[in-house]
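Input structure tokens:
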């Protein structure tokens, strides 16, 4: 048995998690609401936010009790910082595999395209976990991270991305129910918003949208890390 857990804002991480789960004959479980107390091995798929680990994933890691863990960090190609290294330090169990997976960038409205063939060696390692093997821990290096990336990442995201509520909003609060940090209410974002844009995806009336500030548009224009990186 190998569980596949996923946190995803706009679907990029979920697409990668679904690929892995399909190869394993498993189901994808959301990190929110999951009960990760089992010692069963697992893969945890999450997006890179501000070159690090999103707050909801940090909370999940604090509750995770798996003895063997594979970490998969999904990024839009600007910089993945040292997200895997930081995630490994949060996990109690033994990290037996890691991957940085390049896919589309949410803020650039790019699709969920990634190199599935490059992930097949990771799939094979996960199958060993599924068969009950005990694997050695892998070394995940502390890759380069911008020294300013860890400074108030949620605040900087709110500065860079403006959420817009259109006239079609009828106050149904579906966005509030979808928000992983409980920062949305009837189409308005509170101070805890991490700009994952799940609310934009969830709105049944298409009333929510977003706009990038000029400084963030210039930053995202830099192109970009292309390859998938595996630690096996």
């Amino acid at each position: 048995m190998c569980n596949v857990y996923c946190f995803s804002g706009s679907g990029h991480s979920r697409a990668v998690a679904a690929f892995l789960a399909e190869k394993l004959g498993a189901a994808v479980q959301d990190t929110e609401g999951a009960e990760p107390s089992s010692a069963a091995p697992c893969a945890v798929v999450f997006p890179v936010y501000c070159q690090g680990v999103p707050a909801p994933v940090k909370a999940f890691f604090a509750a995770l009790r798996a003895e063997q863990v594979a970490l998969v960090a999904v990024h839009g190609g600007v910089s993945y910082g040292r997200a895997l290294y930081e995630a490994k330090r949060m996990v109690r169990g033994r990290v037996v595999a890691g991957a940085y997976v390049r896919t589309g960038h949410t803020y650039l409205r790019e699709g969920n395209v990634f190199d599935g063939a490059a992930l097949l060696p990771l799939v094979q390692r996960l199958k060993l976990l599924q068969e009950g093997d005990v694997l050695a821990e892998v070394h995940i290096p502390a890759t380069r991270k911008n020294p300013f990336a860890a400074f108030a990442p949620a605040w900087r995201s709110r500065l860079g991305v403006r959420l817009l509520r259109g006239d079609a909003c009828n106050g149904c609060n579906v966005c509030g129910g979808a928000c992983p940090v409980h920062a949305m209410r009837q189409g308005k974002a509170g101070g805890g918003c991490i700009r994952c844009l799940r609310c934009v995806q969830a709105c049944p009336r298409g009333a929510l949208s977003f706009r990038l500030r000029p400084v963030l548009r210039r930053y995202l224009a830099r192109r970009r890390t292309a390859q998938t990186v595996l630690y096996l």
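The beta strands are 3-6, 28-30, 42-47, 68-75, 94-102, 161-165, 184-185, 188-189, 208-212, 229-231. The chain has a mean pLDDT of 91.
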